Amino acid sequence: MLGDKKVVYSAVQPTGCITLGNFLGAINNWLKMQDDYVNIFAIADLHALTVRQNPAEYRKRAMSFFAQYLACGLDPQKSILYFQSHVHQHAELAWILNCFTYVGEMSRMTQFKDKSAKHAENINMGLLDYPVLMAADILLYQSDFVPVGIDQKQHLEISRDVAIRFNNLYSPTFTVPEPFFGKQGTKIFSLQDPTQKMSKSDPDPNGYINLIDDPDTIVKKFRRAVTDCDGRVIYSEDKPGVSNLLTILATVTDRTVADVEKDFVGKGYAELKNEVADAVVERLRPIREQYDRLINDKEYLVSVYKEGAESASRIAQRTLNKVYRKVGLVER
Ligand code: TYM
């Protein structure tokens, strides 16, 4: 809680591009929460350093992601928007929390295991420590709700565990955060391999929709989407491709899958693909147009992220002061 309002916190790592999966699983829910909470949304640019980045490209991509936040409709009047690296308290709290997190807990994390397998040449400490920095992000702001996709569930659990552990050892210090999942769209799958999640670092661009893809590209990607050969448009576990397209259509249009399914009685995959493509094109059109404008307005972007970092830092410092005092550090 901050004042009389509950706090919503979330972030995206600036790797690859912002995908339709990130949008439907996370950002779209942030937009819906903006009016009712204290909202804090970061670009998690320290997290993404756990894999090697080309510095010039990285800087550019982080700015592009920030502009996309605004283009999606995140409103600096309603939400604090900032870069994680601009608020030094994140790294400081992460250090303290490191001392309350066990190596065993970290090495059991699914994402750590997956990423270590993928980047066997660079299994760095940051990769292992990633969930602790994420816990610091969330706990610094006394966050009540963390709207994320289902793939972040385990990280949320560890954030809760660390908060509870610290609160029990000292006295109530951190709000114990709840994950927030949308009713659907919490896991969008790749268009090319619908058994895998849609991933922003997929080397095959046909597997994902980039939020700022142009309409032709979006249509082509959906036309190429992998389905199956039985021809029936129904949601079913043994039809992952078709089910994924139905989920995307339902989530983008704010309807239920069951409702959307009814529209396709007697219709085939071509119709399904066309309708999903059209719905996604229309949902993303204003975002892309707004993005094209914003990305050229550097001055505005800088003013928003500077103000965001100042507001975030003020809140974060209050928590950090409390933590430093509780663990027994001498007051400055
Ligand atoms: P990241 O950057 O991988 O993903 C950003 C958000 O998108 C969700 N998501 C998906 N949702 C549905 N379908 C998909 N295919 C899909 N792929 C990704 C993710 O669940 C996430 O909500 N560690 C985080 C970033 C982070 C963070 C935080 C999140 C850093 N600090 C504090 C919440 C709170 C990450 O890598 O997300």
Q: How would you concisely characterize the structure shown here?
A:
The protein has 332 residues and is mainly α.
How is this structure best described in words?
- With 332 residues, the chain is mainly alpha-helical.
- It has 2 domains: 7-185 and 298-327, 3-Layer(aba) Sandwich (Rossmann fold); 205-292, Tyrosyl-Transfer RNA Synthetase (Orthogonal Bundle).
- The chain has 12 helices and 5 strands.
- The protein has helices at 20-33, 55-72, 89-98, 103-107, 110-118, 125-140, 153-169, 215-223, 240-252, 257-262, 269-294, 298-327; strands spanning 7-12, 38-43, 79-83, 145-147, 178-180.
- The strands form 2 sheets. It has a 3-stranded parallel β-sheet. A two-stranded parallel sheet has the order 4-5.
- Strand 1 (7-12), helix 1 and strand 2 (38-43) form a beta-alpha-beta unit.
- Helix 2 (55-72) packs across helix 11, helix 3 (89-98) crosses helix 6 and helix 8 (215-223) runs antiparallel to helix 11.
- The two termini are 27 Å apart.
- The model has no long low-confidence stretch (mean pLDDT 97).
- Bound molecules: tryptophanyl-5'AMP (TYM).
- Tryptophanyl-5'AMP (TYM) binds at residues 9-13, 21-22, 24-26, 44, 47, 134, 137-138, 146, 148-149, 151-152, 155, 186-188, 197-198.
List its traits:
Rossmann fold; 332 residues; binds tryptophanyl-5'AMP; 3-stranded parallel beta sheet; Tyrosyl-Transfer RNA Synthetase; 2 domains
Q: Count all strands and give the number.
A: 5
Major sheet characteristics: 3 strands, parallel
Could you name the CATH class of the largest domain?
Alpha Beta
- How much strand content do the residues show? 5-15%
Order of helices and strands: EHEHEHHHHEHEHHHHH
CATH architecture of the largest domain: 3-Layer(aba) Sandwich
Order of strands side by side in the largest beta sheet? 1-2-3
H/I helix tally:
12
Alpha carbon gyration radius = 21 Å
- Spans of 5+ residues with little confidence (pLDDT < 50)? none
- Approximate shape: globular
Overall number of structural domains: 2
Oligomer: single chain
**Molecules bound to protein:** tryptophanyl-5'AMP
Q: Structural class of the secondary structure composition? A: mainly alpha
In CATH, the homologous superfamily of the largest domain goes by the name HUPs
Reported by name, the CATH topology of the largest domain is Rossmann fold
- Distance between the amino and carboxyl termini: 27 Å
